[in-house]
């Protein structure tokens, strides 16, 4: 039996620790019963830590799959080394949501909310890709038929849902608005305030309420410093990347360049 403590004792994040325990349960089943096991959909932050754990086991193999090349949310497939990965059944499927009218007023959260409203947990849903009048969603195969049968509305709009092949997924191009700013410091609350046009106190509160993530990790300390390349997300407000830290002005402020996702 695996000594789980030795793999999770260094993890401070309680939610991440729970993900790790579930992963180790699956690893043990793969090793003892030679089964193929799949995780729920994981964020890039969770994936990074779970891969570090999996890499300590020589007896097993694994790969991550998210439905398309640039997928953010992925599931890990864990199996014995003697198996051919191409023979393993995919644990994920893709659906396409369409309407007779364009999805002008609907956003990512509307589609996510509609699926969650069916009683499905977030960890069973992968990427949600929205463009024009089509929304493509990656989900676990176990819930595919249920969603196909029961998802009939998104917001107040009637929709039709069909299954598509993973190869049919079309990830929209990411469009960014470039923003150049001079900030007092590289503190997270200062960058969030400037980039999302919030007061410093509003940014402070959002971070403390755990509505801010940096590189997919929830950060609740406004004083944390950001670095070049960091992806900052505010729930309900969007995302931005710290594209460049360009130096200090004569007045002592820091010049930065942000790319804000449109």
Automatic annotation (TrEMBL):
The UniProt record lists the RNA-binding S4 domain at: 186-246
Name listed for the protein in its UniProt record: RNA-binding S4 domain protein
Cite the SMART domains for this sequence.
Answer: S4 (SM00363)
Pfam assignment, any one? S4
Q: Which InterPro entries does the annotation name?
A: Nucleotide-bd_a/b_plait_sf, RqcP2_RBD, S4_RNA-bd, S4_RNA-bd_sf
The GO terms describing molecular function are: RNA binding
Q: What keywords were assigned to this record? A: RNA-binding
Task: Report if keyword Transcription is assigned.
Answer: no
Q: Which domain of life is it from?
A: Bacteria
List the CDD domains.
S4
